[in-house]
Amino acid sequence: MHYDEDVQKRLKRVEGQIRGVLKMMEEEQPCKDVVAQLSAVRNAADKAIAYIVAVNLEQCIMEEKEAGRDTGKVVHQAIELLVKSR
């Protein structure tokens, strides 16, 4: 699968957020602030996962249709990926 620039930008933002959380911890920032930032990191990672699965699902469905095969299995696998990621 080709990972486009959008998903790479998303993950670079997550990387920056993680560095920010580590800095907050080094500076002994309040727990609630650290947890709030970690929650933002989790949300950003969840969105990146959903984006990757959606793009891959679209690609796989097109390939299955072109080959004349049923797309149900591909959809089921995508749902399993999303469930595992939570």
Automatic annotation (TrEMBL):
UniProt-listed InterPro entries: Metal_Tscrpt_repr, Metal_Tscrpt_repr_sf
Coiled coil: none
Origin: domain of life: Bacteria
PANTHER family, sorted: TRANSCRIPTIONAL REPRESSOR FRMR, TRANSCRIPTIONAL REPRESSOR FRMR-RELATED
Name of the protein in its database record: Metal-sensitive transcriptional regulator
Organism per entry: Paenibacillus vulneris
